[in-house]
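Consortium newsletter contribution from the modelling node. Members have asked for a concrete example of what our holo predictions look like. Here is one, prepared for the guanosine-5'-diphosphate complex that several groups have been discussing at recent meetings.
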Amino acid sequence: MSVVALAGGVGAARFLEGLVQVMSPEELTVIINTGDDMANFMGLYISPDLDIVTYTLAGIVDPEKGWGIKGDTFHCLGMLQQLGFETWFQLGDRDLGTHIARTAMMQQGWTLSKATRAIRQSLGVQCRLLPMTDQWVPTRIVTDVGTQHFEEYLVKRQCQDIVEDVIFDGIERASPSPGVLEAIQQAKILIICPSNPIVSIGPILAVPGIQQAVINAKAPCVAISPIIGGKPVKGPADKLMEGKGVEVSAKGVAELYQTFLDVMVIDQKDKKQASSIEKMGITVSVEQTLMSNLDRKKRLAQTVLDAAAKHRAKQKS
Ligand code: GDP
Ligand code: CA
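And here is the predicted structure:
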């Protein structure tokens, strides 16, 4: 049973941690946002969402932060600071090892996909991780103080600027990385992880061909709302959704996905929105969606698989 999940970073990784416990990881393909990537940060190619998902599934992520490696040290960053470099982007020493390795692989001509496969295999991750594209397509946030790379907006400026627009720079010239379209076509279940709909899922769907493949796919498509009670659990999804004129709610997320979504899992806190989401032709499943421990992650993952199976059975009958 092949399962395909579209994923950003922390929210997705937490969900996927549960998913690989309730299904065979070899049958899972995760298509990951690369809009957050920095192609040349101090000479390094950095791919935050790929690393968050890889580290989480490898069991080495920092559980408090949700990114970086647990127990990592920051000696290199301290030295860079002493040498007068900007150190707003937190890079741990072991984490830097990944960035150096990836950059070295890409400098010898490997694609991001090939480097991603080598890294996840070395770290013992059994499911397939595919970057959405092998081209560099930086997400840029247009704000009241100018246009910023997404990481600059998020980390350096701490989301303090007013969002006016979000641009996926160069995306119209990008193509899905090898295997992405085939995986979507052949999937038995498609999952949209509880990720930021604008800057995590948005870029994946904007790669030419991917959204159409999701629309055409025979598999039921199930999304988990990253918005609970009108607020993101963490991160700037609210500011970005507002900036794009989208209602900050489970219903707002459903509107973004309605052309291809079959089932939406929303939180108990949002059960009043169920009927307006069902009016869009989407089946709603109301659950506990806050993933505060492994048990809850597993339960949410099982709910998604069950909801997909139920939808498929209903289609057949
Ligand atoms: P990023 O790339 O690290 O920002 O990660 P994602 O885009 O994957 O995830 C960010 C989103 O995950 C935010 O909008 C959060 O609201 C959502 N999220 C994080 N933890 C949870 C959780 O426990 N439950 C749900 N439903 N959403 C979550
Ligand atoms: Ca991200």
